[in-house]
Design brief:
By secondary structure, this protein is mainly α. It has five helices and no strands.
């Protein structure tokens, strides 16, 4: 599902974010920045592909360097994309509004392993407690 970046309400200028508040979701400022960076790269690539497809219509396949065409429509398309919010601003806004889904495979695996080990240790403790009264008799 492609996101329509043209309708983004992200700020066009620099904005100060409360990094402590934003990093509460991950518990780590660097992980938060990493998540936003990856999303900004995705957005940037999507915008670049979209712009390239639109400008491909105006491509001239002749090697004549003397002929330079100024196409008003091509210039307007380029200006439109230049006026869009920067990918980092869009990514930061998406993150702040909880619109991003991210996974932490290493943390998830560790958590799963800890839960599994805890369950196994609890079973062993219960088995040991069940054996203790039998040995006392």
């Amino acid at each position: 599902m492609p996101v329509d970046f043209k309708k983004s309400t992200a700020p066009l200028n620099t904005m100060t974010w409360d990094t402590v508040k934003l990093s509460e979701k991950t518990g780590n400022i660097y992980e938060m920045v990493n998540i936003m960076t990856k999303r900004a790269n995705q957005i940037s690539l999507d915008l670049k592909d979209e712009l390239s497809k639109k400008l491909q219509e105006f491509a001239s396949y002749t090697d004549n360097l003397e002929e330079v065409f100024e196409n008003r429509e091509q210039i307007e398309i380029s200006r439109f994309y230049e006026r869009l919010p920067k990918p980092v601003s869009i990514a930061a806004q998406e993150y702040a509004q909880d619109k991003l889904y991210y996974r932490r495979p290493v943390v998830d695996k560790l958590t799963e392993r800890i839960e599994k080990d805890s369950a196994m240790m609890a079973e062993k403790a219960e088995a040991a407690e069940a054996e203790a009264p039998k040995q006392e008799q």
